[in-house]
Design a protein that fits this description.
The chain is α+β, with helices and mostly antiparallel strands. The protein is built from eleven helices and 51 strands. A hairpin with a 5-residue loop joins strand 42 and strand 43.
Length: 790
């Protein structure tokens, strides 16, 4: 045994730590820790050697979800013995609290409190870490995040398995009226990302991340949110509930088990045996396919999980998730890549264009020119651009001229380049055999992503980090689009994981890679893909600027995912490069509206998003409501029309605030308080599938309220230039100013309009008749069509 070195150091007095409305206190007499905000109270208790969650209370409603249940705080198997909080004689070693670190990008907030509790028994010590997040002026917080670390204190090597991330028992008196909300995974199959709602009154559920689905692509099998997203909401009939999530993308399971279908006072006979029915719901998120070998003194830290309470519906849980991500997980977000438009190469999978690097280079050059005309801010080159199919032979195109050219207009370049995958004929990668997966491709894996590096190898992570940073130096700063699985079986004995047990190491090393490349290059952007959602969870999304929702399998992806994904990181408008002439006015107007709503902070880091109910709507999912941080401004958008009279009910408005109501298309106007609008709704004849309803937003582009001309732009340079092997005339000017918003610039040459610039203050004239001696004029135009003097 190694117990002799452990010292008991707990305090002799009540310990209280505060940060905003978050607090942690300790009652020595009852051996209880209270974790609290205005919205939530959790009480942890150590009594007679057992450690459990005594209370889990929604302070806004008074409901204690634990009640009479004895709720364990952990569960795992060590040396073939099951240990939980109520199985084992635990002694207190120490506890301590403190204020959470203040995020670098949110220095104004009260971050909250952390609590650490260390317990021991004769086999191990277990260190619990809790984080209680403080509320903001606009968002009451009821979230607590948790993880724990197990250390083998015996003199023998032990195996740790069946490791829970979050464990909870809910009192049967509350559980009987709960409904379960869950979301199918984000792969490339029908109905991916969809939300489903089940009653738990007569059924139990077990979700497995590798369970698969219809049209399921087997190469996604080891990515933990490809089958189900790691987020679940329990909603009570009374209008409150609990939400659960965890940050892990290897194989996992989530259990919601109950026998409360029988009257809890009764005993029933099953197969001739007398059984006492449970009086609680059993909830457990657990690592699957993972066994951790612990030598004497070695430790294992579980992935973190979070739990929270809310009053209302899943949108009210989402308020907390959105604020948490915007405040606590924003330090690695590069906002220059957010809130704009992404134009992708429509020929990425065109067989006539595959592997023709010169053709792809020209296509992306054209995309930059179209993006400038339409106001898009990202030019995106996807798969199949290199000399051959294989990942690793990346030198087929030098993208630096594209990066430089796009940057003249403030347009960023995005490149599909998953560094951890390669194909047979890529010598640079094949020479790194010690870093490869073993086997190179796992049983059942398709060759779409080719071979791969094991992300559980520290040496592989260092190699890939160097690769990514070198490409950023070669091409200039751009957005790197990741793809493919990062958690996959590997039996190598030379990597930083137990052979056959790589998933946790692969997941954590992937996070480390993302963090370290951004530390080394603070301007680098990252996008996640892998058929969509398997690449996203909260810890990973912290390092991403955007995340593809699915590979086309999910109808209304955005609607469903906006219940828990970072909404600001989903606000890029996507368009194909295959732009038709008659699409230009619509796309340009769409981007201008995006720019205007960003100026009004309705699209913003701290924006809110809701899913309002509507009567007689075309579909259940056609209305989305976006507001600024304090909900004083709002826009409700729709994507389908019913042709009938519709009533849509806004959510979460300030009850006493007066709101103007204006339609983008139509002359209806109104003014009501937030309370009136939420109760009686907004009634209108629904004849436009792209209608926008503005609340307290009166000067939107096209409203006709702006009568003031923008200031004239000042040309600063007209000269012959060559960009990307194209000769022309480069024109630059100082931007115009407007009392509301600039829509763009008309470009004139010798009194003839030749083009339009919707983003930036740069134009490259390649048209017939171009000459640096020509007479160029730039005319600014605002959102209501007012033009500057020439």
């Amino acid at each position: 045994m190694l117990l002799e070195s452990v010292q008991i150091s707990y305090c002799q007095y009540a310990l209280v730590s505060h940060s905003g409305d978050a607090s942690v206190s300790y009652d020595k007499n009852s051996s209880e820790w209270k974790l609290e905000t205005k919205q939530i109270t959790q009480v942890l208790k150590l009594s007679d050697g057992i450690f459990f969650l005594k209370q889990f209370k929604n302070n806004f409603t008074g409901t204690d979800f634990v009640g009479k249940a004895i709720s364990d705080e952990f569960r795992f198997v060590l040396d073939n013995k099951l240990f939980t909080g109520t199985r084992g004689s635990y002694n207190l070693v120490s506890y301590s609290t403190g204020i959470l670190p203040v995020p670098r990008t949110a220095p104004e907030i009260n971050p909250g409190i952390w609590l650490e509790i260390i317990l021991r028994n004769e086999f191990f010590t277990i260190r619990f870490n809790y984080q209680v997040f403080a509320s903001s002026p606009n968002t009451p917080m009821g979230m607590v995040r948790k993880y724990y670390t197990v250390t083998n204190t015996t003199s023998a090597t032990e195996e740790l398995s069946d490791i829970s991330m979050h464990l909870m028992d809910i009192d049967y008196r509350v559980a009987g009226k709960l409904r379960l909300h869950y979301w199918q995974g984000g792969g490339a199959f029908k109905n991916c990302n969809h939300e489903f709602v089940d009653s738990l009154s007569w059924a139990s559920h077990t979700f497995h991340s590798d369970a698969g689905a219809n049209d399921y692509r087997v190469d996604d099998n080891y990515s933990g949110s490809s089958s189900f997203h790691p987020y679940f909401v329990l909603q009570h009939d009374s209008g409150e509930g609990i939400f659960f999530g965890f940050n892990y993308l290897g194989p996992w399971s989530m259990k919601f088990w109950s026998d409360h279908r029988f009257p809890p006072e009764d005993s029933v006979k099953s197969w001739g045996l007398l059984m006492e029915t449970r009086r609680y719901y059993f909830i457990n998120s657990q690592l699957e396919q993972h066994r951790q070998i612990l030598k004497p003194g070695e430790s294992f830290e579980t992935p973190n999980s979070f739990t929270g309470v809310y009053k209302g519906d899943p949108d009210n849980a989402n308020e907390q998730l959105q604020y948490w991500q915007a405040a606590y997980k924003w330090d690695y977000t590069r906002e220059k890549y957010l809130f704009g438009g992404n134009m992708w190469n429509a020929n990425w999978n065109n067989h006539s264009a595959m592997n023709k690097t010169g053709l792809h280079f020209q296509q992306v050059f054209d995309i930059v020119n179209n993006a400038r005309r339409l106001g898009y801010t990202i030019a995106h080159e996807d798969d199949f651009w290199f000399d051959e199919r294989g990942r690793g032979v990346w030198e087929g195109v030098n993208w630096k001229p594209i990066v430089d050219y796009a940057g003249k207009s403030g347009i960023s370049f995005k490149l599909w380049m998953p560094p951890n995958h390669f194909a047979k004929n890529t010598p640079n990668d094949l020479n790194q055999k010690d870093l490869h997966l073993d086997p190179k491709t796992s049983p059942g894996i398709t060759l779409w992503y080719g071979y791969g590096y094991c992300m559980g190898s520290d040496s592989a992570i260092n190699y890939l980090k160097t690769f990514l940073l070198n490409r950023q130096n070669m091409y200039g700063t751009y957005i790197n689009r990741f793809d493919g699985w990062v958690e996959t079986p590997c039996y190598s004995a030379s990597h930083n994981h137990t052979p056959g047990q790589p998933f946790v190491a692969q997941y954590r090393n992937t996070l480390r890679l993302l963090k370290e490349v951004k530390d080394a290059n603070p301007y680098m952007g990252i996008e996640g893909c892998n058929s969509g959602g398997e690449w996203a969870n909260w810890d990973k999304t912290e390092f991403l600027e955007s995340q593809q929702t699915s590979d086309g399998g999910g109808e209304d992806d955005f609607y469903h995912l906006s219940y828990f994904w970072s909404v600001p990181k989903m606000m890029l408008i996507d368009a194909s490069s295959d732009v038709k002439e008659n699409d230009i006015p619509r796309l340009r107007a769409e981007m201008l509206m995006q720019k205007y709503l960003t100026k009004e902070k309705v699209i913003d880091r701290y924006m809110n998003l809701y899913h309002p109910k509507a009567e007689h709507a075309a579909t259940l999912h056609c209305f989305i409501e976006k507001t600024n941080a304090n909900r004083s401004k709002c826009v409700i958008s729709q994507d389908a029309s019913s042709g009938h009279n519709v009533i849509v009910y806004p959510k979460a408005l300030q009850p006493e605030l007066q709101y103007s109501v204006i339609f983008r298309y139509g002359k209806e106007k109104d003014s009501k308080t937030g309370k009136e609008l939420m109760q009686s709704g907004i009634a209108f004849l629904d004849t436009c599938a792209t209608q926008l309803i503005f609340l307290n937003i009166n000067n939107f582009p096209g409203s006709g309220t702006d009568k003031i001309k923008p200031t004239p732009p000042l040309i600063t340079s007209v000269k012959n230039a060559t960009f990307c092997n194209h000769e022309g005339v480069a024109i630059e000017w100082k931007e115009s100013k407007d009392n509301n918003i600039i829509a763009g610039y008309k470009i004139y040459r010798d009194k003839q309009m030749i083009d339009f610039v919707a983003t930036g203050t740069f134009y490259f004239d390649q048209s017939e008749g171009k000459s640096s001696k020509a007479h160029y004029k730039i005319v600014a135009i605002d959102g209501d069509g007012n033009t500057s003097e020439k």
